[in-house]
Design brief:
The chain has 13 helices and seven strands. With about 325 residues, it is mainly alpha-helical.
Length: about 325
C-alpha cells in the first residue's frame, strides 16, 4: 500500500528566484557532491548487505512522523474522525507490537492511527508510522474478514517500513531531482524564465507524486517479508493468500480500486504467496509450538480457505460503526 500523503518538496510553485551568475558554479559543486554521495552505506539486516540511503534511521523516523502529522491534519480539515474507537485502536496496537517484535527492526517507534472512514486502505509511513482505515474491515465492502487477515495487512505494512522502501526510493531517484534543479538553475542563468518555471513545477510534481510510490518489486518484497513476520508472530499465514484470492475474485469492484490500483496483479501476489506458503507454515507451526503436518506429509499443504472457518471461533471487538475486528 502506498504512503498516506505526499512527501513534499521544499520548493513551491511560484516563480523561482533569480540566480546570480556566481551562484551557479557554487550550486553545481554542491549538487555534484550530492550526486556522488546520494547517501551513506548502511547495513541492511534483511539482505545482510551494505545499501545506500540518504537517510539514517532517526531521520527516517522524523520523516514518517511528519507524513502522518500532515495526513492527520488533512483528515481533520475534512471532518474525518481520528482514533475515536479506543477498543479497536488497542486491538490494532497490540497486533502491531506483536508483529513488530519479530521483524528486522523491532526497535522502531511503531504507532498506529485509526481513520474512521469507509475507504479500504492501510499504509505505513517511514519509521513504522501506520495508518488504518475502517473501511478495510467493513463487513460488506471491506477486504479483510478476520484477525489473521488483518494481521496479514499489518505485517505487509510493517515490512515496507523495515525494508525502508520510501527512503530507498528517494535515494535511488535523487539524481533525477538534482538534474531537474540543475536545469532550472541553468535556464534561470540564461534568462529563460518560462523554462525555469516549468522545470521548477516539474520538480514539485515529480517529488510530490511519483517518488513516494512503491514499485512492484517493493510490493512483492513486502508480501514476502510480511508473510514470514505474521507467521513468526503466530498468525496463520494462509490468511495472506486468502486476501489476494478474494481480491482476484472481486476484480473490478470500485470499492477496492484505490486499494489495488498501485499494487501488482492480485493473481500474481496470490501465486507468489502460495509458493512461499510451505516455508511460512513451518515458521507458523514453530511459533505456536506445534509440529507441522508438512513434516510428515510434504503434500499436506492446507487450503488457504481454512482461515475462514477458524475465524468464526474468535470473539470480536466491534468498532464504533458496528464493524468487527477479531481480537
Amino acid at each position: 500500500m502506498q504512503p498516506p500523503t505526499n512527501v513534499q518538496s521544499c520548493m513551491n510553485e511560484t516563480k523561482p528566484a533569480r540566480v546570480a551568475p556566481v551562484a551557479l558554479p557554487v550550486a553545481l559543486i554542491c549538487m555534484a557532491f550530492l550526486a556522488v554521495g546520494c547517501g551513506t552505506l548502511q547495513h541492511d539486516p534483511i539482505s545482510g548487505r551494505q545499501v545506500r540511503n540518504m537517510y539514517v534511521i532517526d531521520q527516517e523516523i522524523e520523516l514518517g512522523r511528519g507524513v502522518v502529522q500532515n495526513a492527520v491534519e488533512e483528515f481533520q480539515q475534512q471532518g474525518i474522525p481520528i482514533n475515536q474507537d479506543l477498543a479497536t485502536l488497542q486491538v490494532l496496537s497490540n497486533m502491531m507490537h506483536r508483529i513488530a517484535a519479530v521483524s528486522h527492526f523491532p526497535e522502531l517507534p511503531y504507532s498506529v492511527t485509526l481513520v474512521h472512514s469507509d475507504v479500504v486502505n492501510a499504509a505505513c509511513a517511514p519509521g513504522g508510522q501506520l495508518i488504518f482505515w475502517e473501511g478495510l474491515y467493513h463487513p460488506e465492502q471491506g477486504l479483510v474478514k478476520n484477525e489473521n487477515e488483518l494481521a496479514a495487512v499489518m505485517a505487509h505494512e510493517i515490512a515496507h517500513a523495515t525494508a525502508r522502501h520510501t527512503t530507498r526510493t528517494l535515494t535511488r531517484e535523487a539524481p533525477i531531482q538534482i538534474g531537474l534543479l540543475l536545469g532550472m538553475l541553468a535556464a534561470e542563468l540564461a534568462d529563460k524564465e518560462d523554462l525555469a518555471i516549468g522545470l521548477g513545477v516539474a520538480f514539485v510534481v515529480y517529488q510530490g507524486i511519483w517518488l513516494p510510490r512503491y514499485s512492484r518489486r517493493d510490493e512483492f518484497e513486502a508480501d514476502r517479508l510480511g508473510l514470514f513476520y505474521m507467521a513468526d508472530a503466530g498468525y496463520d499465514p494462509r490468511a495472506a493468500s486468502a486476501i489476494w484470492q478474494r481480491a482476484w475474485q472481486r476484480q473490478g469492484d470500485p470499492g477496492l480500486e484505490r486499494f489495488l490500483a498501485s499494487h501488482p496483479s492480485h493473481r500474481d501476489r496470490h501465486h507468489q504467496l502460495e509458493r512461499l506458503m510451505p516455508q511460512a507454515l513451518e515458521r507458523y507451526y514453530a511459533s505456536i509450538n506445534q509440529s507441522s503436518p508438512l513434516a510428515a506429509r510434504p503434500d499436506a499443504l492446507p487450503s488457504s480457505a481454512t482461515t475462514e472457518s477458524t475465524a468464526a471461533q474468535m470473539p470480536a471487538t466491534v468498532g464504533s460503526h458496528g464493524r468487527a475486528v477479531q481480537r
